[in-house]
Amino acid sequence: MVVQTIPARIRWAVDLMDVQPADHVLEIGCGPGAGAELICSRLQTGKMFAIDRSESGVDRTKRRNAKFVEAGRLTVRQIDLATLRVPVKRLNKVFAFNVNLFWVRECPDEIALLHERVLPGGAVFLFYEANRAELVPTIVQKASAALSGGGFRVSVVEQKAPAVVGIIGRR
């Protein structure tokens, strides 16, 4: 079995989220499952629900995190956020890395769903890797506006190397 590494940018993002053992976390766009692996390794009584529109992303996340799926700590589904019915009553944290939804189009319904499901004191963490520096201001402005328009208090954090920006919406 090949050991898969977790990229530094994902480690930084998950560290910034400060995942607690009892947290209930939603990951939007789980892709290869690195974020889910790191988050689930920090959960004890908490649970994680990971979604992706891509069948291959769901399959990769399930394979990479089979022990967490088997333990009942991780549920992975192929679905998009717009049609999601969150299986837990309330979420402490929402995690998304390089999910363009929040800055490429209007998404008030998705933001409203998150605001309804995130507990007071909880947060939505949107992270983007800046492969084109000129896009960063637009990403920050549009994602921040989407979150604040949905009732979240927004802050922005940047990691310098590699260039990753985090837009945090607190409820």
TrEMBL record:
Pfam families: Methyltransf_25. Coiled coil: none annotated. InterPro entries: Methyltransf_25, SAM-dependent_MTases_sf. It comes from the Bacteria. Residues 25-122 form the Methyltransferase domain. SUPFAM superfamilies: S-adenosyl-L-methionine-dependent methyltransferases (SSF53335). This is Methyltransferase domain-containing protein. It comes from Nocardioides koreensis. The lineage of its organism: Bacteria, Bacillati, Actinomycetota, Actinomycetes, Propionibacteriales.
